[in-house]
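User: quick one - fold this with fe (ii) ion bound?
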Amino acid sequence: MSRTIETLVRQHRDCDSAIEQVEASVRAKDWNAAAAAFACLEAALQGNFNTEEQRLFPAFEQAMGFSNGPTAVMRHEHDEVRGLLDNAREWLELQDISALAAELDTLVVLLQQHNVKEENVLFPMCQAQVRGLDALLADASPGAAT
Ligand SMILES: [Fe+2]
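Assistant: Sure. Structure tokens for the protein plus fe (ii) ion:
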């Protein structure tokens, strides 16, 4: 597996852990910890999305010669996740446990399905099609948002 794909898969797992941290803090009704965990989750997701949208997807689109394929679907799903995060942030600020838990449940399901598609379909396609995949994140610090 290329270093670039390894990094992105690790970012996916880090986001999963960050969601679990938020859920655990909310269950414990520790709102300060929940706010801190939520900030970590937002940073982790944004870093992963930015890396994919600004590095991987353009390289794939250039290799394939089109941008309306799987990467368009993945970008759309990223926007859906951003929308769920916005909702969750509002429920968090209102300390509404049941609404926040429901929003996080939806987020977990959407993200799981999204990451499975990337890891099982898009990333292997990138491995096959993108030349110089290993070097794609070479100048980015780990988890960088650029
Ligand atoms: Fe993604």
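One thing worth noting: The domain at 3-133 is CATH 1.20.120.520 (Four Helix Bundle (Hemerythrin (Met), subunit A)).
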